[in-house]
Amino acid sequence: MTATVMSDLRSLLHGLPGVDKVGVEARAAALATRSVKTTAKAQAIDLAIRMVDLTTLEGADTPGKVRALSAKALRPDPADPTCPPVAAICVYPAMVPVAFEVLKGSGVHLASVATAFPSGQAPLDVKLADTRDAVAGGADEIDMVISRGAFLAGDYTKVFDEIVAVKEACGSAHLKVILETGELGTYDNVRRASWLAMLAGADFIKTSTGKVPVAATLPVTLVMLEAVRDFRARAGRQIGVKPAGGIRTTKDAMKYLVLINETVGDDWLSPDWFRFGASSLLNDLLMQRTKLTTGHYAGPDYFTLD
Amino acid sequence: MPKSSAPRLSVRKTFKLYIGGAFPRSESGRTYLVDGDNVALASRKDARDAVVAARKAQPKWAGATAYNRGQVVYRIAEMVESRRAEFKALGTAGDEVNAAVDRLVWYAGWSDKIAQVAGNANPVAGPFFNLSSPEPTGVVGVIAPPTLLGLVSVVAPAVVTGNTVVVVTGGPQVAVTLAEVLATSDVPGGVVNILTGHAAEIAPWLASHDDVNGLDLTGVDDPTLAVELEQAAAGTLKRVRRAGRTDFTNDPGLAPMTAFLETKTVWHPKGF
Amino acid sequence: MFEYAPAPESRSVVQIAPSYGLFIDGLFEEAKSTFKTVNPADEEVLAEVALAGPEDVDRAVAAARRAFETWSALPGSERAKYLFRIARIIQERSRELAVLESLDNGKPIKESRDVDLPLVAAHFFYYAGWADKLAYAGFGSDPKPLGVAGQVIPWNFPLLMLAWKIAPALAAGNTVVLKPAETTPLSALFFADVCRQAGLPPGVVNIVTGAGDTGRYLVEHPDVDKVAFTGSTEVGRQIARSVAGTGKRLTLELGGKAANIVFDDAPIDQAVEGIVNGIFFNQGHVCCAGSRLLVQESIAEELLDSLKRRMATLRVGDPLDKNTDVGAINSAAQLARITELSEIGSSEGAERWSPECSLPDRGFWFAPTIFTGVTQAHRIAREEIFGPVLSVLTFRTPDEAIEKANNTPYGLSAGIWSEKGSRILAVADKLRAGVVWANTFNKFDPTSPFGGYKESGYGREGGRHGLEAYLA
């Protein structure tokens, strides 16, 4: 990138309206008091299930574990055929072929983290190879991490160029860009990083890797939703949002749906435009779903552990 | 099961330390005999652990709203009142329990008023906003008097403003009972830590501890020890409160609080 | 948009009796002459309430006078404990009181639950703490109470205004006769029961219900030492006139026409929230409402688009539904006034806009409304509407914003939105208003003094300053 483009990028990002921390947190907290009951809750639970990127990103992941998880993605509640499948499975690149075998042709997407997840501290060619491998193995969604170090050092061009390169390596696969908001320090930075990722070609912006202490929060997601809303108004392109990490209960998921509903509205209330990066969330959604149908509280022993 | 005719044997209480919201024995394994009870005898390492607990709890406690801290201190008053029989059984007179409860209520009210009395806007000569407000000093070592009223009168003012404390007291049963009150009063673990034992043994370790910010010597009877502690405290320029002999039934004034408050002044320009 | 299913708060948590008498000298009297109080959301009668005449007010003032002797002589620490008890009982009964408040007033349960009731309890806690510390309040080493306080409060925050009046009065050692508003008397009567539960000595708090005449008997009563009034500037003026020459102490918290100033470097999304909160909170029945939006011309269009988009998500309807943002207008009379002024706005040439929203058939309702193209000459930019109606004006420079903001007989509150600290502080300095919010709006706290400049009244409620009105 030339020096002028670089300084344009900086002035664009620093020209975005500021985010008042107290105000955005108060707004998120106020929306969190919305009461979603009965029929609305039943609808919302099914929508939330359809939005789950069922995730396992552990050093101890094995083909057996990934196969089991993939099977669960297809039929989260074997006892109830009306229960919808989740949006996607999210695994490390090495596990992509395993998941692909189970998921191919099912309509459930296969996402892989790439680009030296979770730190992003690797040379670009390694990151690109990582991405190509995952796509070659069958992944149709790539969750990349940005170089937070470069972002915090003010080297926006480097971050931008990396995203562009990874996007290219993705081919037809969708690109989700992980901002790792827990490391960005301020909401102003969250807004800037969101715009940077969108300008560089992200299809989705995602909060977190789940590997640092602070993962997705409501106010961070609110700021990102405002960013995709404003970006569409200005650039005409709709971008998806994926909070990930720390969303464990149905109650949490409901709060996020309310946030979408009252910030960006209908257009984002679909698995095409909003995802939950989660693992234990799914079982809680299933338990609440069963409670609504049976009328009594469910216990964890009645749902599969995968 | 046949009913026994023998008189029922009571279950006795074990008097332990209070550190980080838990009730451990002394790491030294020592106890001492007080009125027939074996009471944990705190060691310097217990003091060290208590300082760690107090330091860990301090930012969150100071960061809580003044309103919240006031509610917590008021809850302590409620719980002392509800346990008055226990304190009386330990020899505390009814009037003293009353005074201790009222003292807690008095300090509960100070939580959100001390800044309004000890802070102010300053009319500096220039286009500047200038505001001074009190902030807690940090971790305070408190050598407490042995009575309930004395104990409450030194602990409450230090914590209501946002400090956390490590208390050393020679009035062990009353102190442990107060610890049980604190443990059931919404006081976060680590805000008040209570060590039963000998001031002469423990206090020097607190006075010289680099991670202690203040020292209250109200409960030190021995003037020589008091001087030594003050001298040790000078090493890290701890704020020292030496109240001397105090009649705890009097209006305490502001000094017990302001002794462990810093004043922060903020300047900010004013202009379009 | 996905629709939240109805989420009504249970009405059964509050038991409203068919009728209520006056609360005088610790007892509820039998109601003789009465009036009805209705639920503004459906116009159903909630209860009949006693209409206090001059002799009733006499008895209430006499009871307060008798109680003053002992109450003022109590040690502060004892008075403190009564107030702490009241605060605690309010906390414990807050769900019941919140539902009651929403029923009688029409405000959304979300607000009565999350704003009114927590603030009411906090206010009693705060002033409870002052009762034994009066010598530290900066009004002399041995300040004395004034005697009997006659207090008249409005209908927009019935229980909160009661707390603002009663808590400091009692803490300072005064006794009170309080008249709640005609359309919202119930929570004050429930508060009387809270006093009884707390064991408060008879006569310390007396509640007389009624309309304007009852209020007049009270403030003009010769044995009242202190008058405190919150309400309209017009009535405030009458009270100031009637109190003149009597030596009674007087505090007035009156109307407002606050400017909410948005600079071009404002945090836009939060500013939009602040504008919405500033004018639609409590249906705009707020004396300090940000009813004049002054927006810097360079961002006016963008900001208005955001504001309209945000307004379209406001949920207007059943006050007891937990998801309702904007409830019912408090009374038919108030609705008529809002309607009239809005029509004047249109006829004077301002452009009117409301989001699409379906309003219930029964009850008193008014859709959230903004007027654009408003100038300082429009009546809707000058008169207090006291409803969910926002007038939007523009400005070019900070000086112009300040000039416009101050160009009103009122001076209760103002808002400033900017990311630049020095600008905020400089503008705040020049605004003639008693409360200035920066990058926030409609924030209240018992520790923070509240009250107006100019025709918005005098005296402060809340904070250390709030004690001054009740001490000699």
Automatic annotation (TrEMBL), chain B:
One GO MF term attached to the UniProt entry: oxidoreductase activity
Pfam families for the chain: Aldedh
Domain Aldehyde dehydrogenase: 38-240
Top-level division of the source organism's lineage: Bacteria
Alphabetically ordered keywords of this record: Oxidoreductase
SUPFAM superfamilies, A to Z: ALDH-like
Database matches in PANTHER family: ALDEHYDE DEHYDROGENASE-RELATED
Protein name: Aldehyde dehydrogenase
Native source species: Paractinoplanes tereljensis
From TrEMBL, chain C:
Keyword terms, alphabetized: Oxidoreductase
Residues forming the catalytic site: E253
An example Gene Ontology molecular-function term: oxidoreductase activity, acting on the aldehyde or oxo group of donors, NAD or NADP as acceptor
Keyword Transmembrane: no
Highest taxon, organism lineage: Bacteria
Xref: SUPFAM superfamilies: ALDH-like (SSF53720)
Residues in Aldehyde dehydrogenase domain copies: 31-471
Family: Belongs to the aldehyde dehydrogenase family.
Protein name in the entry: Aldehyde dehydrogenase
Lineage: Bacteria, Bacillati, Actinomycetota, Actinomycetes, Micromonosporales
